[in-house]
Amino acid sequence: MTSASDRVERLCTMLDDAGFEQLAGSAGAGDVLRRVLTAIREGGAEPDIVSDLDTLDDLLARAGMGMVTQPGRGYRPLPAGHSLAFWGCPAERPCARIVTIPAIETGGPPRCAITGRVLGRRSLGA
Known about the structure:
3 strands; 4 helices; elongated; alpha+beta
């Protein structure tokens, strides 16, 4: 089962597409999307967020968009002695979204599409 933070990460990435909210509304998922976004911004209870994410996925799948909050996963360990600098989710109920620092060429740090806040700088490793 995919964790709630992974699912919120996927939703945050989808919201970077300006047309996603309109597509969700057309699929009858506008109200549930607004509930999810409010709960994430305000630190809502995880079981409620997961339930609404399930509903959102169901509605979007029926509209032919697939299960949009179910991300693909992979694992690659860091080499010994190395570290990874990245930007991480700033929400009260953070997702698993990261953007590696070298991936940012211009325009400053990325923003969370849900909260509108700048992602926080973090690091892993040495």
